[in-house]
Amino acid sequence: MAFQKPRSSSFATTSRTHMRPSGGTIDDSFLTEIKNTQNRKLSQKQKTLSCQFSIGDQLSPWPTYTTDQTILHNRKPCSHDYRKRAGSWQKQPLGITKPRYLEQLENYLRKELLLLDLSTDSTQELRLQPYREIFDFFIEDFKTYKPLLSSIKNAYEVMLAYQREKIRALEPLKAKLVTVNEDCNERILAMRAEERYEISLLKREKMNLLKLIDKKNEEKISLQSEVSKLRKNLAEEYLRYLSERDARKILIADLNELRYQREDMSLAQSPGIWGEDPVKLTLALKMARQDLTRTQMELNTMKANFGDVVPRRDFEMQEKTNKDLQEQLDSLRSDYEEVCKEHEILLQLHMTTLKERDQFHSELQEIQRTSTPRPDWSKCEDVVAGGPDRWQKLAEGKNSDQLVDVLLEEIGEGLLREKDFFPGLGYGEAIPPFLRYDGFVENKKPSKKDVINLLKDAWKQRLVEERSESVYIKQKETVAQLLKEMTNADSQNEGVITMENLSTVLKSNFPFKKEEKIQELMEEGGWHPNSSNADLLNYRSLFIEDEEGQSMPFVQKLWEQYVDEKDEYLQELKQELGLELYDEVTLPRLREALMNIDPGLDKQTLNGYLSRAFQLPMTELPEEGEEKEEGIVVRLKIALERLQMTDIRRMGSREQEPTS
C-alpha cells in the first residue's frame, strides 16, 4: 500500500463515506486522488506555517543543547571518544530552554486540539489528526529519516484502517445479537407461561383421573363381593344336586329289585307256567337275562355319560334366578349412585348451612352487643309538626334507623326553616378558617338529596387517596391505646411521664419497630440524645389537635412510619412472589407468600387480606388445600393496590415459626 499523507479533520470525516461497503481495499484511483489532495493540503499548510517557524537553524538535541556543541560524525556508541564526549555532556548544565521549533509545534498541537469538536462520535479519530500532521512535518523536514518514518506511519495507518473495517463489519452482528437476545427472552417467557398453563391443566386432569380410579375401585369391590356371594350359592346348589343324584340311583336300584321280585312271584303263582316246556322256559330265561345285562350296561353307560348333567328344568330355573339377581344388582347399583350424589349435595348444603349459621351467629352477637333498648316512638307525636296523624304517616312501614332519620330531618328542617340568613362570625383568630366571614350568609336549606351528594363527593375524594375506612379507624385506635397506656404510666395523675416510660410504652405497643423508629418517635415527643431518660414529658400535649384539626408532630410521625412500613411490607411480599406487576398470582401462592414473610398472621387476619386482594367475601374463600382455588387469579399490580388501600401491617417477625 502506498504511503498516505495525513488528512485534515474535515477530510477525515468525509473520506469514510468512500470506503467500500464490503470491507475490501480502496480503489487505486481513489488512493491517488487522496494522496494528491493530501500533498496539496500539506504543501499549503507548510507554506502557511513557514512564516511562523522554520527548522533551518533551530533543530537541536534538546535538552543537551549547548552553544559550543558539535555534531559527531561516524562515531560508534561504544567508542572511547564517544564515552568521553558523553561524559563532558553530562557535566554541562541542564537548565536550558526548549528549542523554538519544539515550542511552536507544541503550541500548534494544543490549538488544533482545542478547535476539535469533542461532542461527536468520531472524537478519538479526530484527535489523531493533529498528531498525524505533526508527524508529517517531521517526515518532510527530516529527509534522512523520511523512508523509515514513512514506513512506520504507513504500518500504523494500515492497522488502523484494518481495525476500522473490522469494527464496521462487527456492528451489524452486534445489532443482530441484541435482536436475537430479545427474541429469545420473549420466547422463554412465552414458553414459561405455556408451561404454567399446561401444568395447571395436567393437575386438573390428574385429579379427575384419581376420582375416576376411586369410583372404579369401589365398583370393583362391590362386584367382587357379589361374585363371591354367587360362588357360595353355586357351591351349595352343586352339593344339593349331588345328594339328589345319589338318592335317585339308590331309589332306581330299589325299584328294579322290587320289580324283579314281583315278576318272580307272579311266575311262581301262575298255574299255566308249569305246563310249558322247560327248555323253552330255560331259553326264554336266558334271553331275558341277556336283555337285562344289555339294559344294565346301557343304563350304566347313560349314568356315566349323563350322571353329572343338570336337568333342563333346573338349569332354566337357575338361569331365571340369576337374571333376577342381576337385575336387582343393577337396580341397587343405580340406587347407590343416586344416593352418593344426594349425599355429596347434602354435604355441600351442610357446609353452606354451617357457614351461614356462623355468619348469622356473628351478626347476632354483633347486634346483641351494639343494640340498644327500643325507643318509645309515640313520644315524637307532640314534637313533629302536624301532630299524631302526620307522625303516623311518616312512621308507617319504617324501622328504627329510618325513624331516627325522619325525626332528625323534621327537627333540622324545623330549625333551619325559621332562618333565611345567618350572621357571619367575623375574621377572628378563634374562628376556623372555613367559617370566617363578615356579614350575612344565606341559608341554602339543603335537602336530604343535596347532603347525600355532598357525602358522595367526600367518599370519592377519600377513594382517590387510596384509603379505606379501616385505616382511619385503626390509626385512631392506635393513638387512643397509646394515650391510655401513657395515662396508666402516670400513677400520680400529674399529666407527665418520664422519657423512660415513653420508651417502654412505645416498645410494648410496637414490638416489631426498629430501634431507630422508636428514637424518631421519642425525638418528636421532645427527647434529645443528650437529654436524660428521667426528664419529664407532658404526654397529653402529644395528642391534641390545633384549631384546624391538624395533629401534633408525634402523631404525624406515627402515621408516616405506618405508611413506610406498609410499603416495605408490600415490597417484601412482591419480592417473595418473584413476579412482575402484570403477572397473575393465584390465591394459594399469595397465601403462602404472606405466611412466609409474616408467620405471625392468624387465620382471621390472613383471610381478611386475601378477601381484600381477590375481592371475595370471607365466607366464600376456599379453605387451604382445596383444589378449587387454583382457578382464582388476579394480576399482581391490582392485588398490591387493593392491599395498599386497606389496613395491613406486620403481625410477627419473619424468623418466627408459623403457628398451627
Distance separating the two termini: 85 Å
Structural class assignment:
mainly alpha
Order of helices and strands: HHHHHHHHHHEEHHEHHEHEHHEH
Assign an overall shape: flat
| Percentage of β-strand residues | under 5%
| Rg result | 58 Å
Spans of 5+ residues with little confidence (pLDDT < 50)?
1-32, 47-95, 656-660
SSE diagram, text form:
Elements: H1 9-14, H2 28-50, H3 80-91, H4 100-115, H5 123-141, H6 146-269, H7 278-306, H8 312-370, H9 387-395, H10 400-417, E1 421-423, E2 440-442, H11 448-464, H12 469-489, E3 497-498, H13 499-509, H14 515-525, E4 536-537, H15 553-577, E5 584-586, H16 587-597, H17 603-614, E6 633-635, H18 636-645
Antiparallel strand pairs: 1-2, 3-4, 5-6
Helix pairs in contact: 4-5, 5-6, 12-13, 13-14, 14-15, 15-16, 15-18, 17-18
What would you say this structure looks like, in words?
Among the domains are: 120 residues, no CATH class; 60 residues; 70 residues, no CATH class; 90 residues, Recoverin, domain 1; 83 residues, no CATH class. 66% of the residues lie in helices and 2% in strands. It has 18 helices and 6 strands. The chain has a two-stranded antiparallel sheet. The protein has a two-stranded antiparallel sheet with strand order 3-4. A two-stranded antiparallel sheet has the order 5-6. It starts with 8 loop residues before the first helix and ends in a 15-residue tail after the last helix.
